[in-house]
Write a structure and sequence with these properties.
Elements (H helix, E strand, L loop, with lengths): L2 E3 L2 E4 L2 E4 L2 E15 L14 E14 L2 E14 L2 E17 L3 H30 L12 H31 L1
Helix pairs in contact: 1-2
Length: 174
């Protein structure tokens, strides 16, 4: 049976340090809403095409404190004409302590954006409606799958770089 004492987990005589995770602050770091063709666009018949781009960036503020910024850009076009463009940098400060490097990186790339995305989604929907356009609800994002894809791409790039370096070394021998 495991007992918890002072943030540590004791089990069968072994002591395992538990990690700590907490949100400190959620805030908007940057926001933009553009409607380059209004008010004329309101008179036109348009068939919107929606494009959403998401990026995530994390940096250390101080020991165990991280700022994570989720950048969401939504561009809606109709026949190559931009109807509107929304960009938000939704940020949060998180206290994360006691996790090994790989788990910490995964948390910064998945858990933190999962917390921030609903805030960004709400602001985007509100801005679009305030701009006079029909409601647009962004679909949920699977940040775990995005993280896995990024890890696989990095592994493939490393393997390709390694293979190219081996080929170059072999070529220099001849």
């Amino acid at each position: 049976m495991a007992e918890q004492t002072d943030g540590k987990l004791e089990s069968a005589g072994a002591e395992v340090q538990q990690g700590q995770f907490g949100m400190q602050k959620i805030y908007i770091k940057d926001i933009s809403f553009e409607t380059p063709h209004s008010p004329q666009i309101f008179k036109e018949q348009w068939n919107p095409a929606v494009n959403m781009e998401i990026t995530n960036n994390a940096k250390v503020i101080e020991d165990d404190m991280y700022e994570v910024v989720l950048a969401v850009t939504v561009t809606v076009k109709s026949e190559e004409k931009i109807v509107y463009l929304v960009e938000i940098h939704q940020a949060g400060i998180f206290h994360i302590h006691g996790f090994p490097g790989e788990i910490l990186n995964r948390m910064l790339a998945t858990i933190c954006p999962n917390i921030l995305f609903p805030f960004a989604r709400e602001v985007v929907a509100d801005l679009i409606m305030r701009g006079g356009y029909p409601q647009l609800l962004l679909a949920p994002v699977n940040f775990d799958a995005l993280y896995q894809q990024q890890q696989q791409q990095q592994q493939q790039q490393q393997q390709q770089t390694s293979t190219e370096a081996d080929a170059d070394a072999e070529e220099m021998k001849h």
